[in-house]
Amino acid sequence: MVFDLDGTLTTVGSIWQYVHEALGTWDQGSQYARRFFEGQITYEQWARLDAALWAGVPLNALEPVLSSIRYMRGAEEVVSTLRRREIKVGTISAGLSVLADRATRDLRLDFSVANELVIKNGRLTGAIIVKVGFENKGDILRGLLQVLGLERFECAAVGDDLPDLGLFRESQLAIAFNPRHAEVERAAHVVVHGEDLRLILPYLL
């Protein structure tokens, strides 16, 4: 069982924008976002430009930002219900590993993959290791299934945004939870609207 993170397991739609707004860098960050969606830069270039804006920020300055992020209502119960049935549960996120790692601990996920801000001597260096882009979530999931010895028909995915289309393609059951785009809704087997993640459980169990 693989979940998107931003807007699916958490109530924050984009950890990138959330951090930008908290650190006062969204004016420039929004320009980078516009350039990406207009096709002027790649996702990796976008991520590197964003991360460079945070060079020198102490890691502990992110702690109150991360701790203010709330999980989607019912997320803990959904994960614990699935894990009790011996289902592997994790997240593949085009967001940041500082949030994905926290979610892994709090929700007791089995795995997480996200983009890693480079930290040295307790501060962000402005560099980033881009592991998850806008279009490679499917490739990552396919690799994880191979490592776990699982087939596509044994996997379900939940997401809300365009990068999650790759997860949908590699899963037997694709659930769009509050989809942000019509394309995401069309690609899903099930569409769920609401503010409680437990609404997906009937389709899984």
Features:
205 residues, Rossmann fold, seven-stranded mixed β-sheet, globular
Largest sheet: 7 strands, mixed
Q: What is the second-level CATH architecture?
A: 3-Layer(aba) Sandwich
Strand content: 15-25%
| Main CATH class | Alpha Beta
Number of structural units classed as domains: 1
Write the layout of secondary structure elements.
Layout: E1 2-3, H1 15-23, H2 26-37, H3 43-52, H4 63-67, H5 75-84, E2 90-96, H6 97-107, E3 111-120, E4 123-129, H7 137-148, E5 156-159, H8 165-169, E6 173-177, H9 182-187, E7 190-192, H10 201-204
Parallel strand pairs: 1-2, 1-5, 2-3, 5-6, 6-7
Antiparallel strand pairs: 3-4
Helix pairs in contact: 1-2, 2-3
Describe the structure.
The chain is an alpha/beta fold and about 200 residues long. The protein has one domain (about 1-205): 3-Layer(aba) Sandwich (Rossmann fold). The protein has ten helices and seven strands. The chain has helices at about 15-25, 25-35, 45-50, 65, 75-85, 95-105, 135-150, 165-170, 180-185, 200-205, and strands at about 1-5, 90-95, 110-120, 125-130, 155-160, 175, 190. It has a seven-stranded mixed sheet with strand order 4-3-2-1-5-6-7. The longest helix has 12 residues, at about 25-35. The radius of gyration is 17 Å and the shape is globular. The mean pLDDT is about 95.
